Amino acid sequence: MVELLAARGLDSSDEWIVERTGIRNRHFVADGMQASDLAFQACRAALAAAGLKVSDIDLIVLATSTPDMVFPSTATILQHKLTQAALAEGDASGAGGAAFDVQAVCSGFIYALTVADSLIKTGTATKALVVGAEVFSRILDFNDRTTCVLFGDGAGAVVLEACEHDGSGAGILASDIHADGKHTGILCVPGTVCGGAVLGDPLLKMDGQAVFKLAVGVLEDAARAVLAKAGKTEADVDWLVPHQANIRIMQSTARKLKLPMDKVVVTVDQHGNTSAASIPLALDHAVRGGLVKPGQTVLMEGVGGGFTWGAVLVKM
Ligand code: ACO
Asked: What fold, for 2-161?
């Protein structure tokens, strides 16, 4: 990345990036790969971990700000890819039910979880794939060192399942989501498609300092609100899985909530800011790595363009 910037006459260094953000590595998709391809891999891994087949799924909610197309939704493209793979492997039927995208930028996974949980609780769906998938490398301005060093591509997924209460109390305990559209200008991609051409600017713009200040405030508010809704306190939180944007934002949130950093799952060093994919990527790392265990209470929270923000409290 630093070499890429230097080739464009932009000055940066690994030291600056690591010190200001905590980011050491990022991943960019190959040409021709789309958000649905990353989502496909993440969903296959989530289904395998849950011991389920694609045909068991009756809802797909996919959070992305970098969809494959203007329409149809990336969720429906993903549903087709999952179905084709299942049929090729001899599964008699593919995924059915509803599939749609949620667009809440870096809060997308929190929004998607909240929507899927609500549809399960109202009986509309029984087993849901909830996915965050992004190809932010496609909307970065590689002439802008203040943004292009921060973002990466990735996807993460979970399966949510309706179940009878088994006494464990496991499941989503509470959600809290918000938006305030007056902050559009500090984090946006201000382009659109019209008459077959891009109107405006299709690359990401961000006022980093303004975003930073807003983010630390609303992340504290969302954490306190979701805990209050669930009748819990900070002391009940075993793990904080925050949006992986910047290590300093995570440290600040942890400090305000009086949570030690060893209760905070940090993966921003491995993949940078992957927007809606960052929380499920961090959760996957923590679950597969044996950090998060059944019975523990996990607080996930995100903040992003819109401005949007929110939190979900889960008992694993
Ligand atoms: N390399 C070297 N220097 C740089 C770079 C770079 N890549 N980028 C900026 N600088 C310079 C600036 O030009 C500035 O120089 P100056 O003092 O000569 O003017 C100096 O570094 C300090 O810049 P600041 O903007 O004050 O740096 P800051 O400490 O605020 O860090 C950062 C910038 C990392 C962007 C931080 O503000 C941040 O993380 N903001 C939040 C981003 C975020 O959380 N986004 C989440 C939502 S994302 C979504 O929803 C899609």
From this structure: Peroxisomal Thiolase; Chain A, domain 1 (3.40.47)
Nearest-CA residue for atom 11 of ligand 1: 146
How far are the Cα atoms of 78, 103, 158, 274 from residue 41, in angstroms, in the given order? 10, 20, 12, 16
Predicted TM-score (pTM) of the model is: 0.96
State phi, psi for 295 to the nearest 5 degrees. 95, -15
Pair of tokens at residue 218: 């609303």
- The burial of 162, by beta-carbon neighbours within 10 Å (0-12 exposed, 13-18 middle, 19 or more buried), is given as middle
Residue 271 annotated to the active site: no
- Told to judge if 163 belongs to the known catalytic residues of this protein, a careful annotator would answer no
For domain 171-315, the CATH class is: alpha beta
- Shared fold status for 2-161 and 171-315: yes
Which residue's CA is minimally distant from atom 3 of ligand 1?
12
Pick from 3, 15, 19, 20 the residue to mutate for probing ligand 1's pocket: most ligand atoms within 8 Å of its CB.
Answer: 20
Of all protein residues, the one whose alpha carbon is nearest to atom 31 of ligand 1 is: 20
The DSSP letter of residue 234 is: G
305 lines ligand 1 (CB under 6 A): yes
Distance CA 219, CA 212 (A): 11
pLDDT in tens, 110-158: 999 999 999 999 999 999 999 999 999 999 999 999 999 999 999 999 9
What is the position in ligand 1's atom list of the atom closest to the CA of 5? 7
Instruction: State whether the beta carbon of 250 lies less than 6 angstroms from ligand 1.
Output: no
Query: How much helix, strand and coil, in percent to the nearest 5, is found in the chain?
Result: 45, 25, 35
273 counts as catalytic: yes
Of 148, 243, 271, 285, the catalytic one is 243
Q: Domain limits of the chain?
A: 2-161, 171-315
Which tens digit of pLDDT belongs to each residue from 254-273? 999 999 999 999 999 999 99
Sign of CA dihedral 178, 182, 187, 188: positive
